[in-house]
Amino acid sequence: MKANSVHLIRVLKTIFDRSIYWVLLPCFFIALVVLLPDFSQFEIDTDEGIQVILAQLYHQGYTFFSQVKYDHFPFFSVMLTGWFNLFGYQLQVGRMMITLFVALLLWCLVLLIQQRAGWLAAFTASLLLLLDGQFLLMSASLMQSLPFIALGLASLLAIRRSGPLQVGSVAVYVSAALMAMAVMVKLFAVLMVPAMLVELARRPHGGQLVLAWLAGVLFVLLLCTWMIAPALYDPALLHENIRYLLLHHVQPKQWMPDLTLLHLLAKKILYFPILVLAIIAMLRMYGSLRLNTHTDSQVNSKRGIPFDLFPLIWLLCVLVALLFMHPVWYHYSPMLLVPLVWLAALSVGAFVGKQHRDGTFDGWLRQGVRVMLWALILLLPIMIPMRGEQINTQLVEAGSALDEQLLTAIKQHGESPCSMVTDRPIYPFIAGCSVPADHAVVSEKMLQSGLQSEDAYLRAIDLHHPQLVLLARYSQLKQNLPSELKQRGYRRIYISEKAWLYTRDPD
User: Fold this and answer.
1) Which pLDDT belongs to residue 12?
2) CB under 8 Å to 181, separation ≥6 — which residues?
3) What's the distance, Cα to Cα, between the start and end of the chain in Å?
4) Mapped to the 3 state alphabet, what secondary structure does 244-264 carry?
5) Is residue 490 helix, strand or coil?
6) 163-200: string of b/e by CB count within 10 Å (b at 16+)?
7) Higher-pLDDT residue of 278, 359
8) Nearest to 338, CA basis, from 385, 268, 266, 285
9) SS3 for 473?
10) For residue 245, which phi and psi values (nearest 5 degrees)?
């Protein structure tokens, strides 16, 4: 009877534990939907307009790299198109997809850290991320910076939660597929691959696992790109595609010289407590490696060290890559922030864990830290809205609010369906105008690298004869194009500090 009771308790505990793991994901999503600030009146980043217009063009049947030029793999645009088809083509709907990815990111991170350092350390990582203003802003911004990290962490979670691995294990190929999708969302996901290879190599039959995993990543990557962007395999477009995907991302340092790795560290993620905790974790792991007293999934019983090489290797790869890149944009910060927070959480786990309680004072100190951390976690529903108000104020000061008068002018002068050539595609998306596929994506990097030019605007206007032309981003276009537009029969009907709108007079 007693044996049966013990067995029943074990079964119930297993079911309960698994239930908790899966309940956390929708809980994170619901909490983010409720707590994230409302940025519906803002264009958080100009890349948001590019993302929504790409999804719209893909929905209309245009193909990537042959008809639509872009500087990333198009998998994110394909996912966004499917999301829009399900829930409607609106900016806030697209941002909701990002919130879902952020919930996945937090869920994966919590489970990965909990496995090594306990629940309190895991939720501390969530606390540190959600209280970071940049992370909070990007959690509601329609960009790729967080989705690719979420998919990469899901790839790692598939490996770690699967138990013993064999070459034919389903988890190996699920992990490979997730990492391939992460790479197709943003190429920076390749910086997570070395950490994953070390993770696999440390297991029994590690060499075979590494080869099987890499084969799976390559197969999914080639298959998906062939399905959604076959022009990538066109030899005639090979040189141009390489320029778009790789070469123009690295610009001369004379252009925007302040956008460097050191600037990003100083302005965006140089938070002293997180750095100190992360450095402590690195030093402890280094000492543990030298002593060779750890195993891959255990904690050093003498020193209480949660050991995890993945965030450390990932962080080092990112630092090396960004050191040689220019410009280093602000939205690269999550690639540094997430592994730093991960390492900091491991230090928290080492400090507040059950191990190494020497004396009454030590025990009281650890208990006090636990109480403080739980209090901060419970205060998140109050602290996040307060942080959101600060972000709203910053967006207003930065002039990121959408121009409602401009939208009204577009709708008044644009016949249905209206057509537009613009350097700010979020406005035609919201107003329901169409843009030419060959001129949908415009960026400062493309202008600087020679992939685009002012002549491209004029060619698009001469070819498509759009009803409206909107110049709202680049001052050089405002300086050089008005006279050309006037010669082509356009007159300016709206002007503000940042936007000039032109309409074509009837023939």
Assistant:
1) 44
2) 75, 151, 220, 224
3) 93
4) HHCHHHCCCCCCCCCCCHHHH
5) strand
6) eebeeebebbbbbbbbbbbbbbbbbbbebbbebbbbbb
7) 278
8) 268
9) coil
10) -80, -30
Tell the burial category of 8 from Cβ atoms under 10 Å away from its Cβ (0-12, 13-18, 19+).
exposed
* Amino acid letter for position 489: G
Q: What is the Cα–Cα distance from 410 to 420, expressed in whole angstroms?
A: 10
Q: Contact at 8 Å (CB) between 216 and 224?
A: no
Residue 161 phi/psi, 5-degree rounding, is -95, 5
- What is the H or E stretch that residue 500 is in? strand 500-504
Please give the residue that has the higher pLDDT: either 468 or 385: 468
57-100 pLDDT, tens digit per residue, is: 999 989 888 888 887 888 999 999 999 999 999 999 999 999 99
What gap in Å lies between CA 398 and CA 135, rounded to an integer?
18
Could you tell me which residue, 240 or 196, shows the higher pLDDT? 196
132 pLDDT exceeds 90?
Answer: no
Beta bridge partners of 501: 470, 494
Residues with Cβ within 8 Å of 198's Cβ and at least 6 positions away in sequence, in order, are 309, 310, 313
How far apart are the C-alpha atoms of 236 and 225, rounded to whole Å?
17
Nearest Cα neighbor of 249 from 424, 450, 71 is 71
Rounded to 10 degrees, the C-alpha dihedral 389/391/396/402 comes to -100
Residues with Cβ within 8 Å of 367's Cβ and at least 6 positions away in sequence, in order, are none
Task: Please say whether the beta carbons of 463 and 436 come within 8 A.
Answer: yes
Q: Which two tokens stand for residue 257?
A: 């010289």
The alpha helices in 332-453, defined as continuous H runs, are 333-352, 360-378, 380-397, 404-413, 426-431, 444-449
Contacts of residue 147, defined as CB under 8 A and 6 or more positions apart, other chains included, come to 76, 98, 101, 185, 186
Does residue 272 register a pLDDT over 70?
no
Q: Per mean pLDDT, which range of 51-55, 92-96, 374-378, 481-485 is the poorest?
A: 374-378
What is the residue-wise DSSP string for 33-95?
HHHS---TTB---HHHHHHHHHHHHHHTT--BTTTB--SS-THHHHHHHHHHHHH-S-HHHHH
**Cβ–Cβ under 8 Å, residues 142 and 79:** no
Element (H, E) at 136: helix 133-138
Which of the two residues, 219 and 353, has the higher pLDDT score?
219
| Residue with token string 């002018």 | 409
